[in-house]
TrEMBL record:
Domain HTH araC/xylS-type as annotated: residue spans: 8-106
TM regions (residue ranges): none
Alphabetical keyword list: DNA-binding, Transcription, Transcription regulation
Gene Ontology molecular functions: DNA-binding transcription factor activity; sequence-specific DNA binding
InterPro entries: Homeodomain-like_sf, HTH_AraC, HTH_AraC-typ_CS, MarA-like, Reg_factor_effector_dom_sf, Tscrpt_reg_AraC-type_HTH
Protein name: AraC family transcriptional regulator
């Protein structure tokens, strides 16, 4: 068993037992490692100490329950492995800047620390060869776009420190809020019926230092001057296409995994990504997305 497989084994165990008390010695034994080496290796691969990671995954589970259940805050705290309501509330506010009660009253999209899939750090795939891992189906390919694709929608300014690294920060999901606003306005926009939707991060002269601009919109026939617009220019792209079991998984954990995998894939194949990387969403029965990478060879 490789070292990463030992850690993945304990990640799976932790996820299945978030309500239970976790012990470093027990986890280290499952990984067949000493407690000292287990903690060092875990922190290196997961980017968080063991107990901090467990707390963040418990908070992610609690967020799901708060949205879907009318159970008391105390019962949710206990069912997610927190020793008391006070500890749970304090941890929740430190991570998200609001209390569990406030979140329940006005739920918004939040960034979570995802459960890592360490296999994606070790796996190599060739173009047009699908990779399947933990409910994620992913594929890399080249295309050449012959004609521009126009989108119209809205944009906002996003602080980089609050959103990156993907899947490793907690707090308010600002791009997610922009998507909510866009879908509330979409019926007013001159967009194509069943057209593709886009989310894209980029920098321009109006973007403050330490931030990026995030545009969200839908496909239209031509650039529109009444609303904000983004045009996907004709050129060569490398596309990372992927599917997930649910739309919520697609736009959170699966997206974060796909970005990390494709970024590594580009580097290992000698490509450098240019200034923007659109997320193209398809309206279909199976939740699917494409990451379009304009690139240059190193």
């Amino acid at each position: 068993m490789y070292a990463w497989e030992s850690i993945q084994c304990t990640l799976d165990f932790i996820e299945e037992n978030l309500d239970a008390k976790q012990d470093i010695k027990q986890l280290a034994a499952k990984a067949a490692l000493s407690p000292f080496y287990y903690q060092r290796l875990f922190t290196k691969l997961v980017k968080k100490p063991v107990m901090e990671y467990i707390k963040l995954r418990r908070l992610a589970k609690a967020c799901e329950i708060l949205k879907e259940s009318d159970d008391t805050i105390l019962n949710i705290a206990v069912s997610c492995g927190f020793g008391s309501q006070e500890v749970f509330t304090r941890s929740f506010k430190e991570a998200y800047g609001m209390t569990p009660t406030s979140y329940r009253q006005k739920p918004i999209m939040l960034n979570q620390f995802d459960k890592p899939d360490l296999l994606l750090n070790e796996t190599e795939i060739e173009e047009n060869s699908p990779l399947v891992s933990e409910g994620l189906v992913l594929e890399m390919k080249h295309i050449v776009l012959e004609q521009p694709i126009h989108f119209t929608g809205i944009s906002g300014i996003v602080p980089i420190s609050a959103q990156l690294p993907l899947g490793e920060t907690c707090g308010v999901d600002i791009p997610g809020q922009l998507w909510t606003q866009f879908h509330q306005l979409k019926h007013q926009l001159p967009v194509l019926h069943h057209g593709r939707e886009i989310g894209v991060s980029y920098l321009n002269s109006k973007t403050p230092d330490g931030c990026f601009t995030y545009f969200t919109g839908a496909e239209c026939e031509a650039a529109n001057t009444q609303w904000e617009s983004f045009t996907l220019p004709p050129r060569a792209y490398i596309i990372c296409s992927f599917e997930a079991e649910t739309f919520d998984e697609l736009v959170t954990a699966s997206l974060n995994k796909a970005v990390k995998f494709s970024t590594r894939w580009l580097s290992e194949h000698g490509y450098v990504m240019d200034c923007f990387a659109p997320e193209i969403y398809h309206t279909a029965q199976i939740p699917s997305m494409e990451l379009w990478y304009p690139y240059q060879s190193q």
